[in-house]
Amino acid sequence: MATRLAIQATVVALVAGSAILTKELGKRPMPLAAVRLAPTPAPVTIRPVNLVLGAPGDPEVVPETSPVAEPAVEPAPVSDSLRYASDPAIRWFNGRPVRPARTVQMVVTAYSPDARSCGEFADGITATLHSVETNGHALVAADPTVLPYGSLLTVPGYDDNHIVPVLDCGGAIKGKRLDVLYPSHERAREWGRQKLRVTVWEYADGKPADDPRKVR
After folding, report:
1. CATH for 93-203, options being 3.40.50.10800, 2.40.40.10, 3.40.50.150, 3.30.70.1560
2. Residue 82: helix, strand or coil by DSSP?
3. Residue 10, CB half-sphere, CA atoms under 13 Å: how many?
4. CA 49 to CA 97: how far, in whole Å?
5. What angle do CA 180, 186, 188 make, to 5 degrees?
6. 146 and 107 Cβ atoms separated by less than 8 Å
7. What residue ranges do the domains of the chain occupy?
8. Residue 66 burial (CB < 10 Å; 0-12/13-18/19+)?
9. What is the DSSP letter of 26?
10. Strand blocks (E) in 74-186
11. Rounded to the nearest 5 degrees, what angle is found at the Cα of 177, between the Cα atoms of 175 and 182?
């Protein structure tokens, strides 16, 4: 009986103590949970990637680009006039370009279109049927087997060294001889007889020489 009472008393004491403890714990604030700061992540470097379509695992394939061919620029054609103008050797006669072809050593005399030089043939017409006034009285007589009719010459000291045509011949003009025409007998006599190196010219345009018997 005494043991039973002791057990009951112990149980009552435990219950009472538990109630008191529960009440006390309800009054106390709950401790805060410890907060741990997470480490700052390292910066991430983003590298560009060339995306090329292909099967997974295939090596990267870089497409080839062919060079673009630039259109060829052809130089503008140079006109004949500009080409001739840039050549200091080119001169002009009767509207056509001419250039020196060769030189010939000749004996040069002078004549006039009157009877004192031409005798009975003093009709004012040359052997090629041109007037003696052609080219301003500046023309020459030559041996056509040496210098054909229509040949172009420059004779030092005659007609200011302009180019003059061979449009006449003479009975005494044989071989390497020339007769330059002057409008008067007196002026022809002043010329006298000279040994000169004469320049022979040719057309530079590639066209044939004019027929002096057709050109008037």
Report:
1. 2.40.40.10
2. helix
3. 6
4. 71
5. 10
6. no
7. 93-203
8. exposed
9. H
10. 91-93, 96-111, 140-142, 152-154, 164-168, 177-181
11. 145
Q: Going residue by residue through the chain (216 aa), what tens digit of pLDDT does each one get?
A: 556 655 666 655 555 555 555 555 555 555 555 555 556 666 656 665 555 555 556 566 566 666 766 777 676 666 677 778 878 899 999 999 999 999 999 999 999 999 999 999 899 999 999 999 999 999 999 999 999 999 999 999 999 999 999 999 998 999 999 999 999 999 999 999 999 999 999 999 989 888 888 766
Q: 207: Cβ–Cβ under 8 A, 6 or more apart, which residues? A: 96
CB 182 within 8 A of CB 188: yes
Structure tokens at 30: 């709950």
Overall pTM > 0.85:
no
Residue 135 CB neighbour total at 10 angstroms: 18
Report which residue type is found at 62: V
Taking phi over 0 as left and psi of -120 to 50 as alpha, with beta for the rest, 125 belongs to: beta
DSSP lists the bridge partners of residue 152 as: 165, 201
d(CA 149, CA 139): 11
For residue 136, give Cα distances in angstroms to 73, 130, 183. 49, 12, 9
Which residue carries 């009157």 as its tokens?
A: 114
135: Cα within 13 Å, side-chain hemisphere: 22
